[in-house]
Automatic annotation (TrEMBL):
Taxonomic placement: Bacteria, Bacillati, Actinomycetota, Actinomycetes, Pseudonocardiales
Alphabetized UniProt keyword annotations: NADP
Domain of life from the UniProt record: Bacteria
Origin species: Amycolatopsis jiangsuensis
InterPro entries membership: ADH-like_N, ER, GroES-like_sf, NAD(P)-bd_dom_sf, Zinc-ADH_QOR/CCCR
Record's keyword annotation contains Ribosomal protein: no
Keyword NADP recorded: yes
Listed name of the protein: NADPH:quinone reductase-like Zn-dependent oxidoreductase
Domain Enoyl reductase (ER): 10-311
Entries under Pfam families matching the protein: ADH_N, ADH_zinc_N_2
Length: 316
């Protein structure tokens, strides 16, 4: 099978096509014929080598990608699942293990990491859901703000931020969000109660809307200590790149590691249901043939992409 991967870390140019053995599912696993894989910022960290310690000395090629949509074509022996060959599905993939990531014609993943594709979405759109939405879901669960509380979302125009806004609204929270001038309408359309201008001083604008401080921040823009002043005493901040504080004033810092819940089947099913119910919006910026993965990484690095770039593994 063909896969997009790398044997040395670096810029987008290190990505190339490899011929790899067809993976075989074991107990508890399913194999998926990939139709689409979305391109996420975490894939660029993977490619650059920023997280190479996670490979534990294994040799390449290393295959990135955490989000896939496709069709089940094999189920491991003794696997308890309702999935059947031919089912259209989506999966969250942990790319640092020996199986590699989602940028491949076939992938093998735990059955618990796979759910049916939302009936309202095609393969490219469906491939943009799980990693970012599950990260946002975990962030909200760690903050544990009760219905009626107030949260602020930074980086609200991004994939994580957009899902954070919509999931928080679904949880019955008041949502404050930031946006640049070109994205204000987009973020308001996602359902945020109030949208303020983004920037390093965004904490002041959040405080103007919540004078006692927000109960929690979902920090998609990775502002870290710059947004802490927006939080009330003993509130919380959910961070997506491992910042550990300190935050002071009894504020709890919650690092969010989506890999830890990649097999939380109930959470994944709920996200799928929320797409079908219209509570979550899938956003595709563009679909490129799989062989143009390097171009997708270049475009993502240039910035300004709204929605996700998607690789089409039925076209090369």
């Amino acid at each position: 099978m063909r896969a997009i991967g790398l044997t040395e870390f670096g810029g987008p140019e290190v990505l190339r096509v490899f011929e790899l053995p067809e993976p075989v599912p074991g107990k508890g696993e399913v194999r998926i014929r990939v139709h689409a894989a979305s391109v996420n910022p975490t894939d660029t960290l993977f490619r650059s080598g920023a997280l190479k310690a996670r490979f534990e000395g294994r040799s390449g090629p290393y295959v990135p990608g955490m989000d896939a949509a496709g069709v089940v074509d094999a189920i491991g022996p003794g696997t308890g699942t309702t999935l059947r060959p031919g089912d259209a599905v989506i999966a969250i993939v942990r790319p640092y293990g020996p199986r590699g990531g989602a940028y491949a014609e076939s992938i093998v993943v735990p059955a618990d990491s796979v759910v049916p594709r939302p009936s309202t979405a095609d393969f490219p759109a469906a491939s943009t859901l799980l990693m970012n939405a599950l990260t946002a879901r975990l962030a909200l669960d760690l903050l544990s703000v009760p219905a009626g509380g107030t949260v602020a979302v930074t980086g609200a125009a991004g994939a994580f931020g957009g899902y954070a806004v919509q999931l928080a609204m679904s949880d019955g929270l008041r949502v404050l969000a930031d946006a640049g001038p070109a994205d204000t309408q987009l973020v308001a359309g996602l359902g945020a109660d109030e949208v303020v201008a983004r920037g390093d001083d965004v904490a002041d604008r959040f405080r103007a809307l919540a004078p006692d401080g927000v109960d929690g921040v979902l920090d998609g823009a990775m502002l870290h200590e710059l947004v802490v002043p927006a939080i009330r005493d003993s509130g919380g901040i959910a961070v997506i790149r491992g910042w550990a504080g300190p935050a002071g004033r009894g504020i709890r810092v919650h690092p969010v590691w989506v890999n830890e819940v990649a097999t939380d089947h109930d959470r994944l099913l709920r996200l799928r249901e929320q797409v079908e119910a219209g509570e979550l919006t899938l956003r595709v910026a563009d679909v490129l043939p799989a062989g143009q993965a390097a171009e997708a990484h270049r475009r993502l690095a240039e910035g300004g992409v709204r929605g996700r770039l998607v690789l089409d593994f039925t076209a090369w």
